[in-house]
UniProtKB/TrEMBL annotation:
Protein name per Swiss-Prot or TrEMBL: Membrane protein insertase YidC
UniProt xrefs under PANTHER family: CYTOCHROME C OXIDASE ASSEMBLY PROTEIN COX18, MITOCHONDRIAL, OXA1
HAMAP family according to UniProt: YidC_type1
Known role: Required for the insertion and/or proper folding and/or complex formation of integral membrane proteins into the membrane. Involved in integration of membrane proteins that insert both dependently and independently of the Sec translocase complex, as well as at least some lipoproteins. Aids folding of multispanning membrane proteins.
Species for this entry: Algoriphagus marincola
Membrane topology: Multi-pass membrane protein
Annotated family: Belongs to the OXA1/ALB3/YidC family. Type 1 subfamily.
Membrane insertase YidC/Oxa/ALB C-terminal domain sequence ranges: 364-556
Signal sequence coordinates: none
Length: 600
């Protein structure tokens, strides 16, 4: 019998004696509970942690009858003193409490708030996480128990340092253990919780977790931050879901198992990932009235206990697509890359271009210019074909005008004759449009990429202090509906360049009437829409317009309208006796039938 065991027996006998003297006339208590409630802690079975400090007699005396009845064998675990232990690597710092083994604060060391303060992704004043177990006495919270910490360091197989925090507590009936692992350079904190022994104490095979976070405003533009902050989750079947970005309170209780849950902000995500799957998931969110906070987010779920052990992983870090993609399946969806028909541009082209150029250039304005040049160069064959198609339509404009004079009052006949003319001259009316259509995914992709690009966060260029938000060139003393109370110079330059481009483009095409005027209306509409969007987006569109001017001016030097006209005339002679294709014949027949029905 060692010293701790002897001390335990002495204290055990003393407490029973005192209890029998002072509480003999009280309510009857089951003898097994009486024994369990006052037992002393002993060295745990794990052997990896020093023996628990012995609980003093004065402390066991402080256990109330309510605590004994409520916690039973676990009652002595509620005695202790809270400490904060810090896990830290080169990118994050995580504060863990020895009271319950909960994470109190998470600081992202590489980033600051827009005010230049340390960026706390989670803090104990606005976020909380409770962990509950069901026992024969009812539900108990791990936050009611005190654990003894040990902080050690290990080396991974690839030579990286791993900080390991072990929190352990227990009694003669068993032990409870938390283990946290933080690898060098990682935003992921691996977590495990383990129950050893305690036979017949715990009644369910899962750990219930409830997580609440009132996310603080880290960015200057509160409205945009709220639009980009939401609760996301990913089901075991591979379905990504979110609660949306509206201001109205929302809640969901998915019926299927969930692989991970993310509290996703505009540029950062706090997430929890199951080793297996979470069950009984409930998620909710609402918008606080306090402007210091962006969104209130809540999640409750059960983590399975397999042989008394629950494993899961936290992610606390930036919304960088490549980083998130390495976390777990579907986790990269915390970054909105746009609809499926444009997301491929961002995922496979823009993200990789940014990553490549970041190695050689530190100025993101320069990077944006280079990306425009690279994309425009890659798409230059389409630009050339588009210009040639519009040039052909321009040189046959006299023939089209003749048809309008002759058949202007009969739209069906006019269309039929135009199709015949195009066939004879070897000209396609969509030849100038299709190449532009193929370029549209790149233009729309940027509309999603720049507002969600953490790469641009707090990066300045020219007069813009932060390319991830609007450049407030002029602050207005009033608010213009649908526009705002500021003037974004990059958006204004983009609008002017688009109007000039439209005017130049109209000289190259045969557009008339409403279609011609639409080209002037759209830039003005986008001026209102993009005025409060990131400066980087407007700058990209402005540079894109300027490069397009240069491309068209260069093409014009090498394209002679006379030569195009000669080619068109040659096609006219060549196709003079050409028979109509089956498609053309069917199209004409369909038009004639439609015209006949209309006249009826």
């Amino acid at each position: 019998m060692d010293r701790n065991q002897a001390t335990g027996l002495i204290l055990f006998a003393a407490v029973i004696l005192i209890y029998s003297i002072f509480f003999a006339s009280g309510p009857e208590i089951d003898p097994s509970e009486e024994t369990i409630a006052v037992e002393n802690t002993v060295t745990p079975n794990q052997g990896s942690i020093e023996e628990f400090p012995p609980i003093q007699k004065e402390e066991t005396d402080s256990l109330s009858e309510d605590k004994i009845n409520r916690y039973g064998v676990l009652a002595t675990l509620t005695l202790g003193k809270e400490e904060i232990v810090t896990l830290e690597n080169d990118v994050i710092k995580v504060d863990v409490s020895t009271k319950g083994g909960t994470i109190k604060n998470v600081e992202l060391k590489e980033y600051k708030t827009w005010e230049g303060k340390p960026l706390l992704l989670l803090d104990e004043e606005s976020s909380s996480m409770s962990q509950m177990l069901e026992t024969t006495k009812g539900p108990v919270l791990l936050e009611d128990f005190y654990f003894f910490p040990e902080l050690t360091s290990e080396t991974s197989e690839d030579g990286k340092q791993i900080q390991v925090l072990t929190l352990q507590t227990g009694t003669e009936s068993g032990t409870l253990l938390h283990r946290f692992e933080l690898v060098e350079g990682s935003y992921q904190v691996k977590k495990s919780f383990e129950i050893n022994d305690y036979q017949g104490v715990f009644t369910q095979n899962h750990l219930s977790i409830s997580w609440n976070d009132v996310a603080r405003a880290h960015e200057q533009d509160l409205a945009e931050s709220r639009r980009k902050t939401e609760v996301n989750y990913y089901t075991a079947e591979g379905s990504y879901e979110n609660l949306g970005v509206g201001d109205s309170p929302e809640a969901e209780s998915p019926t299927e198992a969930v692989k991970w849950i993310g509290f996703s902000q505009r540029f950062f995500t706090a997430g929890i990932i199951a080793d297996q799957n979470f069950s009984n998931v409930n998620v909710a969110q609402s918008t606080p009235t306090d402007s210091a906070f962006v969104r209130q987010m809540e999640a409750s779920f059960d983590v399975p206990l397999t042989e008394g052990k629950a494993d899961y992983t936290f992610y606390f870090g930036p919304d960088r697509y490549k980083v998130l993609k390495q976390v777990t399946e579907g986790f990269e969806k915390n970054v909105d890359m746009g609809y499926f028909f444009v997301s491929w541009v961002n995922k496979y082209i823009i993200v990789n271009l940014f990553a490549f150029l970041e190695k050689y250039f530190s100025n993101y304005g320069v990077i944006i210019i280079l990306i425009v040049l690279i994309i425009k160069l890659a798409l230059s064959p389409l630009t050339y074909k588009s210009y040639i198609g519009m040039a052909k339509m321009r040189v046959i404009k006299p023939e089209i005008d003749e048809l309008k004079e002759k058949y202007g009052e009969d739209p069906t006949k006019m269309q039929q004759e135009q199709m015949k003319l195009f066939s004879q001259l070897g000209v396609s009316p969509v030849a100038g449009c299709l190449p532009l259509l193929f370029q549209m995914p790149f233009l729309f992709a940027m509309f999603f990429f720049f507002p969600n690009s953490i790469e641009l966060r707090q990066e300045s260029f020219l007069w813009a202090n932060d390319l991830s938000t609007y450049d407030e060139f002029i602050k207005l003393p009033f608010t213009i509906p649908f526009y705002g109370s500021h003037v974004s110079l990059f958006t204004l330059l983009m609008t002017i360049s688009q109007i000039v481009y439209t005017h130049f483009n109209n000289q190259l095409t045969t557009a008339t009437g409403p279609m011609k005027n639409l080209g002037y209306i759209m830039p003005v509409m986008f001026m209102f829409i993009l005025n409060s969007y990131p400066a980087g987006l407007s700058f990209y569109y402005f540079v894109s317009n300027m490069v397009t001017f240069g491309q068209q001016a260069l093409i014009k030097l090498f394209v002679d309208d006379e030569k195009i006209r000669q080619k068109v005339e040659a096609n006219k002679v060549k196709n003079a006796n050409k028979k109509k294709s089956k498609f053309q014949q069917r199209l004409e027949d369909a038009m004639k039938a439609a015209d006949a029905n209309r006249k009826k």
